[in-house]
## 1
Amino acid sequence: MYNLHCHSLLSDGELLPSELAVHYAAAGYKAIAITDHADYSNIAFIIKAILEFTRHWPKNRKIIVLPGIELTHLPPEQFEPLAKYARKEGIKVIIGHGETLAEPIIPGTNRAALEADIDILAHPGLITEADVKLAKKKGVFLELTSRKNHHDTNAHVAEQALKLGARLILNHDSHRPEDIISPKDSIKVGLRAGLSQKEIDNIYREVGLFIAKKEGK
Ligand SMILES: [Zn+2]
Ligand SMILES: [Zn+2]
């Protein structure tokens, strides 16, 4: 079981990266990505800090920790240069903070993020068919989330992705210890979005392959 979207003290989360890793391992997860909010003001700092952490995280621990980042509330034209920069520096999981209905997101954000070199489009709200097709073409995961408010459009995202063949991922977008839900409850998020158990198994298989690739295995 995996969660590739969580926030630490490096942005607006409550836990240190090490606390996140230990909490997730205790909850039964095999891998996480720590993906703090970044824009031009803090991206260099976050990348340096999370790479320092993951470089020192012992390989023999029970949980894999991938260095990530969430490009958040950017003017759309900044997704491309910042994703490129994060990739070059060694960030493995790049998330675009998509057009959730719960926040005032700049229109065109889903499209600009998908055109950049991202891995996951988080909470993409009422994503259009054209953008789902672009996600499919680029192999970008569209996120179903357990996070309150953001999860309101999960059923739409799941339906469109299944219809058009785009990849899905189940994530927590966790900020506090209470957001670290059990693997069982993660599966419930998928079921509630209208997925079958078989479709959810497929998601975890695909995400497992993605993690193995990022780990260089
Ligand atoms: Zn946040
Ligand atoms: Zn987030």
## 2
Amino acid sequence: MKTRTLTAATLLALAAAAAQAETTVQDAWIRGTVAQQKATAMFGRITSSTGGRLVAASSPVAGVAEVHEKAMDGNVMKMRAIAGLDLPAGKAVELKPGGYHVMLMDLKQTLKAGDMVPLSLVVEGKDGKRETVEVKAPVRALGADAHDAKKH
Ligand SMILES: [Cu+2]
């Protein structure tokens, strides 16, 4: 029993040391907005090397940021906030139009194509430790995936 406790403590120490590189975000982007538009979403691919959950997000451009999913409810596509998005160890989880996304609401400015938007994503590890991942996401023009937007 004593040996086990020591091993767990050692693993925790190692995990803490490696915490900075546990989660990576690739190809992050944000859908551009038009004047007066108050909400948009961030997409991208998130990979946690050790496994965890995306539990929160924030950005200086948004008053509120939430983790959302989009899914069919009967015949209607709806989106809703979820408590967390599971990130299986080593497996990229895709945030994309029509699926999971980080919803940015109460926008403080119009987001134009080419703008770089900083975001902080909070990932909770299996040990309960929270890691903040800083992301800079470029804004893509609203019409860039208009086809996708209509479909969903
Ligand atoms: Cu949403």
